[in-house]
Amino acid sequence: MCAGGTPVGQPGGVCPVGVGALGVDMAPVCLPYPSTMTTVGWVTVFLDLPPHAHEAGTRFWSAVTGYAVSPPRGDHAEFTTLLPPHGDPHLKLQRTETADGDAPPAVHLDLHVASVDDAASRAERLGAEVAHRSEHGYVVLRSPGGFVFCLVDEPLVERPAPTRWPQQHESIVDQVCLDIPAPGYEAECAFWSGLTGWPERRSVSRPEFRHLERPGAMPVRLLLQRLEEPGAAPVSGHLDLACDDRQAEVARHVTLGAAVVADHGGGWTVLRDPAGGLYCITDRDPRSGLRP
């Protein structure tokens, strides 16, 4: 907690240096948040898979996590959930129907809130745009940078533990990295911190990274990466796994059909899954989410 902040973690005052998502020191950015915030009780990650990649993607992510696949649901049987053996689910899959049959996989977030209408109003005040209000009670929005997310009211509380593998290491999907074009980076960071009420922490040694400090029971962290490539594409996202033996975890993924794209010896490896989506395996502690 920032010195001078409130007991519930509202930031303010002098802040200590912490530990970041990629193993670098992180210093909190202390901002005077408004007294009324959206209370996010849970975060679910959705993998949005086009029809041509849906079967391969579902099979791969079930094997990678060790989670069973639920029976399909939805008007067109387009939704499934990855079910951990213990704890509440935080990973779901959606078969998307797009005009472009070759569209790549994507990621979106569901934020679980007590009042969808109140949270949607707050998101709009912070700069989001409502894309759809469903008759089923959820609201689809776009962040200021164009990242799609949903507000839902499903109450979930028990964070699943990492999976322990026969190779005697542990791993878990526990982070979404938002890849943000540089021109909109400050506004996007402020939006997500303001909407969730989670303090924003900057990297001391890697200024292109920030993360939001999640509450202890939250299954998913948010990492915010500034992209230096020119252009003004919408904000996108990718999954990150935490593990305590990156070499063994990467080898396991390759055996399951992933391909290594880049190895950043300083803490993470970039891979491409069989559905065509990029993701990262990091050296973060799979239980705390932090660098050991």
Give keywords.
single chain; 292 residues; alpha+beta; 2,3-Dihydroxybiphenyl 1,2-Dioxygenase, domain 1; 2 domains; 11-stranded mixed β-sheet; 8-stranded mixed β-sheet; 4 helices; 19 strands; disordered N terminus
How would you describe the shape? Answer: globular
CATH class of the largest domain: Alpha Beta
Report the sheet-strand fraction. 35-45%
**How is the main sheet built?**
11 strands, mixed
| CATH superfamily heading of the largest domain | 2,3-Dihydroxybiphenyl 1,2-Dioxygenase, domain 1
Mean pLDDT: 88
Structural class: alpha+beta
Distance between the termini: 20 Å
How much is the radius of gyration in Å?
A: 18 Å
Number of helices: 4
Helix percentage: 10-25%
Q: What CATH architecture of the largest domain do you see?
A: Roll
Topology as a string of helices (H) and strands (E)? EEEHEEEEHEEEEEHEEEEHEEE
Unreliable spans are 1-21, 23-35
**Can you count the beta strands?**
19
Provide structural commentary.
With 292 residues, the chain is an alpha+beta fold. It has two domains: 40-152, Roll (2,3-Dihydroxybiphenyl 1,2-Dioxygenase, domain 1); 163-282, 2,3-Dihydroxybiphenyl 1,2-Dioxygenase, domain 1 (Roll), CATH 3.10.180.10. The protein is built from four helices and 19 strands. Strands 1, 2, 11, 12, 13, 14, 15, 16, 17, 18 and 19 form an eleven-stranded mixed beta sheet that branches. Strands 4-5-6-3-7-10-9-8 form an eight-stranded mixed beta sheet. A hairpin with a 5-residue loop joins strand 13 (200-203) and strand 14 (209-212). The chain is globular and about 50 Å long. The relative contact order is 0.19. Residues 1-21 and 23-35 have low confidence and may be disordered.
